[in-house]
Amino acid sequence: MSKILIIRFSALGDVAMTIPVIYSLANANPAHEITVLSREPFRVLFKSLPTNVRFIGAELKGKHNGIKGLNVLYKELKEEQFDFVADFHSVLRSHYLCLRFKLDGVSTASIDKGRKEKKKLTQKQSKTFVQLKSSFDRYYEVLEKLGFSFDLNFVSVFEKGGDLSAIISQTGYKSSEKWLGIAPFAKHRGKIYPLELQEKVIAHFANDKRIKVFIFGGGESERNTVNSWVEKYPSVLSMVGKLNMGQELVLMSQLDAMFSMDSANMHLASLVNTQVVSLWGATHPFAGFMGWNQTVENTIQGEISCRPCSIYGQKPCYRGDYACLYQITPEQIINRIENLLFDL
Predict the structure, then answer these.
(1) Is the separation of the CB atoms in 132 and 287 below 8 Å?
(2) Is residue 158 part of a domain?
(3) Domain check: are 269 and 173 in the same one?
(4) What is the pTM (predicted TM-score) of this model?
(5) What is the pLDDT of residue 1?
(6) Inter-residue contact 135 to 14 (CB < 8 Å)
(7) Residue 100 C-alpha from the chain's centroid
(8) Confidence tier at 78 by pLDDT (50, 70, 90)
(9) How many CA atoms lie within 13 A of 201 on its CB side?
């Protein structure tokens, strides 16, 4: 039996994208023990994986903070006697841990993030506009370097869909109507469809009696925005602050479709085999961050030559008008969602 340590600390979407790869590795190698090292709040993502997968939560703002904290973390990990270390993150923290393991004779490998090719994809002039490797492929390559070969074979973290019974008080029972999730927010401005236009999408589906709408988000500002929508459209249900991440996954598994920005919610819905209509502004699927088993046909993108201008959407729009987002009409989004919901 081999013991494999996989390191990926953040961010939520990137950690979520490790799941199909780790699941496939564990399923193909049931005799190996696989340990995932990440941030404690992400533990729930790995709860339903094969039994040979375990999780260690790093306290990066506590006892594992700074170089002294990393030394503490390394000593704790060393006791596990790992045979392999797979660095899915490639940041200073993970590099340091890999160096310590390598000095102890442990086989290590780190992800190639493709920074040069991503820079060429997002440069202002003469973009190299090609599909880059997905994060799933890049994670797989790390394990391949360590000698592991297996098929990527993953459908959902739930075998039969999540159990609604624990959250039925928030969601109600599912009957004949279609359940639509809307995740209107993202970490960076360049990924967020303008909220005044998002409201038109929400208003349309709020008035469709065939559809029940759930809105996802987090934080006080997002809660206030969603509450203002719910006041106008009482049939819409806000899930902001009402469910934990595990419960959100359960609800997402029951949705007939999700409309999401290029954000963590796109990836969470992908982990429970829910179809996603995803919207891309400053970013682009070519960078390799499309959700698991999601299709280009269900992406909504503006046709403008300056995009993508960013891999993560954090750079301010150098045009100043975010045309990549504003040129997308609510009708385009509504039509794509209805096509998906009703197989049009």
Answers:
(1) yes
(2) no
(3) yes
(4) 0.97
(5) 87
(6) yes
(7) 30
(8) very high
(9) 30
